[in-house]
Amino acid sequence: MVKAHKFKVTDHELVPKHEIVPVEEAIKILKELGVKPEQLPYLRASDPVAREIGAKPGDLVRIIRKSPTAGRVVVYRYVMAG
Amino acid sequence: MTDEKVIGGIKFGILSPEMIRSMSVTAIVTSEVYDENGLPVEGGVMDPRLGVIEPGQRCATCGNTLARCPGHFGHLELARPVVHIGFVKHIYDLLRATCRKCGRLKLPQEEIDRYLDLYKRLKDRWPQLAQSLSDYVKRKAIKATKCPHCGEPQYKIRLEKPTSFIEEGPLGRLWPNKIREWLERIPDDDLRLLGYDPEVARPEWMIITVLPIPPIAVRPSILLETGIRSEDDLTHKLVDIIRTNEKLRESINSGAPEVIVEDLWELLQYHVTTYIDNEVPGVPPAKRRSGMPLRTLAQRLKGKGGRFRGNLSGKRVDFSARTVISPDPNISINEVGVPRDIAMTLTVPVRVTPWNIDEVRKYILNGPGKYPGANYVIDPNGRRIDLRFIKDLKAIAEGLKPGYVVERHLIDGDIVLFNRQPSLHRMSIMAHVVKVLPGKTFRLHLAVCPPYNADFDGDEMNLHVPQNVEARAEAKTLLLVQEHILSPRYGGPIIGGIQDFISGAYLLSSKATLLTKDQVSDLLASISYEGEIPEPAILSPKRSWLGKQIFSLLLPENFNFMKEANISSGELKCSDEECFWDSYLVVKRGKLLLGVLDKAAIGAQKPESMLHYLIREYGNTFGKEFMDKAFKMFLRFIEMRGFTMSINDIVIPREAYEEIWQVYEKAKEEVRKLIEDYQNNRLEAMPGRTLEETLEIKILDVLSRARDEAGEIAVRYLNPFNNVFIMARTGARGSTLNITQMAAMLGQQSVRGQRISRGYRDRTLPHFKKGDIGPEARGFVASSFVKGLTPIEMFFHAAGGREGLVDTAVRTSQSGYMQRRLINSLLDLIVTYDGAVRSTYGELIQFRYGEDGVDPKNTSFGEAVKASRIVDKHVGWKK
User: Does A21 touch chain B (CB under 8 A)?
Assistant: First the structure.
């Protein structure tokens, strides 16, 4: 495998912005949504994006993406093992 | 009071023989059912200890009366065990996967340990994966020819459907008792790995040694009018089982030859099998004397009329009615016409209070036979008095006190639910206000046909009467027809003008319509208008009003709206106020100034229309009121003017036919040339197409152009104010294509989007030469419906028409199933108060409904706010 030219999925324009949410903020967000982390949609730790941004199981990931109906949309994913 | 308990979960298992004995109240020991006095025999299948059958009786077991006794199980000890037909598959798998001697799973111990560990970890998180692991382990174990634990050689086991197992080795036929011994040897851990929970489902319990006898309440006998008792199918079957069991036990005890015992054993197996499931392949179904197959346990659960689909997912309900529907344009869109007969059967419970006691007394005095009356009176002790059997209604009426409940007849103004199947969207059930009418059909306003997808060719609809205040309030605020004028399906009115409403609106609002004072009065009287008549638009030579003026009386004063009308196409196209053809609708400050009303203005299922914005901006109640009045007025006008359709509307003059003929001849010549080019290899293939495909596409193109041209010629010769043409232009009914087909020519008939090409060898019909691919030989119809079709043309038309029918049939079933699956997966998602979409487990599905939190019903084409409309709304009159 040629390491120098490794493809990064996050560089692709169709992949929305992913970022790891700091723990204190994550707690606040969960409280606001009134959910336990397992009740959020999952993101696998083996997901190419999760690997690139270094998300570990237990992290909360914020995804900011464009939407045809609402313009800018912020959603959260709970990173799980696998 | 007993404690409230919460159900934490449900676990299914198999009843063990011990369990069956311990829940049994009596052993069944005799096949006798009744003695000579007609009393049930103790120890028979109708043993009184199994539960109460007659009202007033007390249960011999629990001491309760009929209403409170739940019924009790008995049990029957089988002389020899038999296989449970429902578990044959499991028994077969277990026999093959385990050792014939030691009963272990035929895999090495380390493998079992490894898989078991994996299985335990998978089980809670990925139950489906655990299932497939079990399957894999099972398949692997079946392959072993020698037991890894005891070294015993293994033989192949054959399942002889439905219930015999045969080992192709020393054991030979495996009788159920042998199977049971074998299954008993399988250790618990091996079973766990195979996906069984040995706590609740030991495999040896799959062999029946003790048969539970269900309570009598499960299999009630019915008393026929002749006084003859008729037993339930299950009871019959149970008697068969007991009788065979007795015979089997006798033969064993008397030491009868093995063959006879085995025969009886097989017979017992047959009876127990059909008792459980009477539709097992390979087993002749047990029949009643009349030849009807018995309805045994599995049949009670299975299928459309079974317990699940017939009694649990769906139930029969009281306070409902069903009959044919017919149209009534004179009632409100919120109303439903209910036949008097139905209104006298359906009832509404009314609690008597000091304020309504006089009114309720009148209902009682009328009784059940006179409308508006009452059918039942319920006193404060909960006693029901059936007024049909009361001679002295006066006494009841006088004895009436607050606290009584009277079930009175349905009257005008009651709120009911109205439904038409298939109930595909929420508008399939709406609340209507009752209007009791003579006749035998439900009457509904024509404008509510689109949401129900109803027509009057024999459609029937259902009506339900809510029985309490909460239900009525909910129906009134959420389900009332006017709350559903705007559809969430496409953000436009689904209830609106159709057919004659549109024709009438067009004719009334047309420039050519001048009304006399009498006519104006008539129109306004039809809607009970009580204001002033406006100044006439034309004063001389005769004071005349325009239809537009009269219609404007219904519009709110500050309403502005501008849009192209439906008729704005072709030569009549206008896209601004400078419109000679009157095809651009302009409403300024509540006055219809320019343009005609047609489908684009008042039509159902047309978003962004005048009607749509009237409802959005002035509310549902206004919308309902507007439609009630406007539609009534349009109909009144169309009645005044007269509106029909005749053959003369679609007959075109001889010159037109000649012109059309020339067009057709020209097209035929073109097609001939194309074919010639093709044969001489002069045709150039289109990109990505073969030469043949190219030829077909070009021919199709030429022919469809020919039809369009013919249509244009026909339309040119038609009077634009002939009624058929008006209907097509305004969108009331039909299209220009329909007119073309009636007046000019039908055009190419197609099957699967291709010209018709199959039938005989190299030709469609024997009337053509082989290999003829000219227009006529491939289903082109040059005749019109007016002119009539030749037999050959008629055949092609039928072929094309048949495809259409088949298509609709296939499409409805496919989309129906797709819809069912979608609904089943989405049905318990809810939008919570914070605007997020959640499942019932509290899982977040969408952080905000539709990502923008907008109700599609209140959008215009998905936009929550449409800026251009806001501008138009406020300053549109300045333009």
Answer: no
Instruction: For residue range B557-612, list pLDDT tens digits in order.
Output: 888 888 888 877 777 777 777 777 788 888 888 888 888 888 888 888 888 889 99
- Contact of B627 with B332, CB cutoff 8 Å: no
CB contact under 8 A, A39 and B841: yes
Tokens 């095809």 belong to B583
Disruptive mutation site among B851, B855, B863 for chain A (greatest number of A CBs within 10 Å): B851
Confidence bin at A1 (pLDDT 50/70/90): very low
pLDDT in tens, B84-132: 999 999 999 999 999 988 888 888 998 899 999 889 888 887 788 888 9
State how far the Cα of B432 lies from the Cα of B444, in Å rounded to an integer.
9
Structural domain boundaries enclosing B161: 83-207
| Contact across the interface for A67 and B862, Cβ inside 8 Å | no
The minimum CA-CA distance between B66 and chain A, rounded to whole Å, is 48
B842 min Cα distance to partner chain A (Å): 7
Q: Residue B176 in contact with residue B206, Cβ under 8 Å? A: no
Residues B146 and B38 in one domain: no
Alpha-carbon distance of B307 to B305, in angstroms, equals: 7
- pLDDT tens digit string along B435-484? 999 999 999 999 999 999 999 999 999 999 999 999 999 999 999 999 99
Q: Which of residues 823-862 of B touch A (CB under 8 A)?
A: 834, 836, 841-845, 847-848, 850-854, 862
Residue B161 lies in a domain: yes
Euclidean distance between CA atoms B110 and B132, whole angstroms: 20
Q: How many contacts does A have with B, using Cβ atoms within 8 A?
A: 36
Q: Compare B719 and B138 and report the one with higher pLDDT.
A: B138
Residue whose entry in the numeric block shows the structure tokens 């335990």: B120
How many domains does chain A fold into? 1
Check if A9 contacts B (Cβ < 8 Å). Answer: no
Provide the 8-state DSSP code for B130.
H
By Cβ distance, the residue of B843, B853, B854 closest to A39 is B843
B592 vs B547: CA distance, rounded Å: 10
Please give the Cα distance from B105 to B94 (Å, whole number). 9
Structural domain includes residue A2: no
Identify all chain B residues contacting A71, using CB atoms and an 8 Å cutoff: 852
B836: tokens are 């997020």
Phi-psi region of B524 (alpha: psi -120 to 50; beta: other; left: phi over 0): alpha
Asked if the structure places residue B863 within a domain, the reply is no
Q: Could you tell me which chain A residue has the CA closest to the CA of B838?
A: A39
Distance from CA of B851 to the nearest CA of A (A): 6
Q: What is the DSSP letter of B536?
A: P
Q: Note the pLDDT of residue B879.
A: 65
Query: Is-contact B241 B268, C-beta < 8 A?
Result: yes
Q: Which of B843, B845, B851 sits opposite A73 (nearest CB)?
A: B851
- Bond preceding residue B493 cis, omega within 30 of 0: no
Residues in chain A: 82
Residue A1 in any domain: the answer is no
Q: Mind telling me how many Å the CA of A37 is from chain B's nearest CA? A: 9
Chain A residue numbers touching B122 (CB-CB < 8 A): none
How many domains would you assign to chain B? 5
pLDDT tens-digit map of B43-68: 888 888 888 877 778 888 888 888 88
- Pairwise CA distance, residues B266 & B272, whole Å: 10
Binary contact (A33, B862; C-beta < 8 A)? no
Residue B876 within a domain: no
CA-closest candidate to residue B627, choices B501, B442, B484: B501
- Report the gap between the CA of B241 and the closest CA in chain A (Å): 53
Does any CB of chain B come closer than 8 Å to the CB of residue A78?
no
Question: CA nearest B859 in A: which residue?
Answer: A69
Give, as one character, the DSSP assignment of residue B7. -
Match 């048969």 to its residue by tokens.
Answer: B211
